[in-house]
Write a structure and sequence with these properties.
Blueprint lengths: L5 E5 L3 H9 L10 E6 L1 H7 L17 E2 L1 H5 L8 H7 L4 E6 H15 L5 E3 L11 H5 L3 H9 L9 E5 L10 H14 L5 E5 L2 H10 L19 H5 L11 H9 L5 H5 L3 H5 L6 H8 L16 E11 L2 H22 L1 E12 L1 H9 L5 H6 L1 E2 L4 E13 L2 H12 L8 E13 L17 H13 L6 E4 L9 E4 L4 H26 L10 E10 L6 E4 L2 E17 L7 E12 L25 E10 L5 E6 L2
Parallel strand pairs: 2-4
Antiparallel strand pairs: 1-6, 1-7, 2-3, 5-6, 8-12, 9-11, 9-12, 10-11, 13-14, 15-20, 16-17, 17-18, 18-19, 19-20
Helix pairs in contact: 5-15, 15-18, 18-19
Amino acid sequence: MAVRRIVAIVLPQLACELVKQRGPVSPSGKAPLAVILGGEEDRRAALAPQPEREPQAPAAVIDVVDDEARRYGVRPGQKVVEAAALVAHLAIHRVTFAEIDAALGRVAEVALGLGATAAIQLGEQGAPRAGAARASRAPERAASEARSPWGDGPYDTVWLDITGASHLVGGEEALLGELGERVAALGHRARLAIADGPRLAQALARFGAHADGGGGAEAPIAPPGKGAQAIGPLPVQALPVEREVASFLVRLGVLRVEDLARLPRAQVAARLGPRTADVMELLAGRDPVPLLPFEVPRLLEEEVLFDEPVESAESLLFVLRGMTSRIASRLAARGEACGRLNVAIAYDRSIARLRLGEREDDGAAAALLEDDGRGPSLRFHVDMPVPLSDAGDLLRPLKARLERIELAAPAVGVHVIASRIARARRVQLDLSRDRSVDPDSLPALLAELSAEIGQERVGILEIADAHRPEARSRLVPASGEAAMTRASAAARARAAADRGAAEQAGGADAPALEPARLLAQPIPLGRVGRGAIVAVDRHLYAIERLSFVMRIDAVEWWTPTPASRDYARAWLVSGSPSGKAAPARLGELRSPRDGASASSCGEAWIYVDRATGEAFLQGWCE
């Protein structure tokens, strides 16, 4: 039976990184940062109108600090007023437990591509992290437990079961390298370790030789069955004991785990408190705690809330760039792609109602005021012709759409949902060339054009069965490979039929029987014949010759306006008596044939309405 191998992914600066993903933490962008962890009620308060918000209470306790704030002497557990006394320009932000759980879920989702089971909480034998239990706590207790290294917090670890899977990527060291790159793509700095159990791996990741950030130490890997020896050099704080117990042991001179392991078990058990059984198992190198599998959501959601409202498109684009990058990383781990991005930009409620109230008669402004219970917001979506998964391809249509939008009020948050999830296409490696063509280049361009000029104006031409030439093609949405394949097959069939008809009419070199370009609206020419003078775009042309093509009789007879027409090809010439070319507006005119002396000429496609005898210019031939 294979020994269980677990990877612990510890994110020591997770809360600070979530704040920095929203944008600059201060106007200068270089201020030290401190974070207060809050509950679900703080999430609703973040979207409240600006006048209703309250500043951070001086008695609030700091939970997480970044490296810059730590250099100034700010530590977790200090009150806001104490930290502000040390650092006057300290930036203090709030992060909710929902944001923490969502970030851990993203890491677990990315990690699943390298292992069988990922988890953000342990089973019954460990410390449960049920969201319902955490939401029901009193706020002061939740914050206290969030600062505790054991118990229910801190919430900074993702576990991955790699039992029997590491050889697929070249071993455990290669797996840690690949996993670190995937987590870094999400914008997080991680500490990784491998051991026989989740708590052993977590202790190695938190307190291993690489945890101090110096010396370029590699991620620790405990050999199978050697978990007790691996955690021996770690400080006693690496064990699941309360802070008071760890402080007491340090005062006695028990500084490391191996020092504690050498003491008599009976005396140690009397001092460890309620977690004696857990500590004894870890000292023996046993860690049977099960993982609670993380359930991957079908829809990918990313949400960012701003502490200070933003009004510039550049700030929103900065946030969307990070959101699309994280969505792309999650899609790559799942081997999937998305076909639609739904975006909701939450407005500041009071300013939105004030500004939009002044334009009540403006229907476009009223459409921007969509309230889903959390306040007014601007909502739009971008459809991809083919499901895409690359971060750059997902951002390009959003950027094109955002540049054309004017915000009705300052934005306090952005919510992006990736829907229409489909399996990503896999391209066969091309060994005959150094560089292969990117198959997503055209779909990404179509998505950007759809966002720029409108989805209804971008598509592919599809051949339709109709008698009237102007009805033989129509624009259909480029919704996927099937539509493109169907259109190209129909075009090839139509081209083959035209070539066959041309060969039967007069050989392979005979001209096509249909026009190359049709006008949006036919131009009336009056009654025509050989030698007749017609006016086209304020210029006069003479019809040198006419060639009958076909007749349609009572087409679409069931409609109020059935069509009965004679189609012909007309050779139009235009020139001056001096032989110099007259100004012509026919961009498609060709050179004269058969010795024609006119200075400009072109072959036109016309039809004559048999009911009235009037002719119309409908297009040009090539």
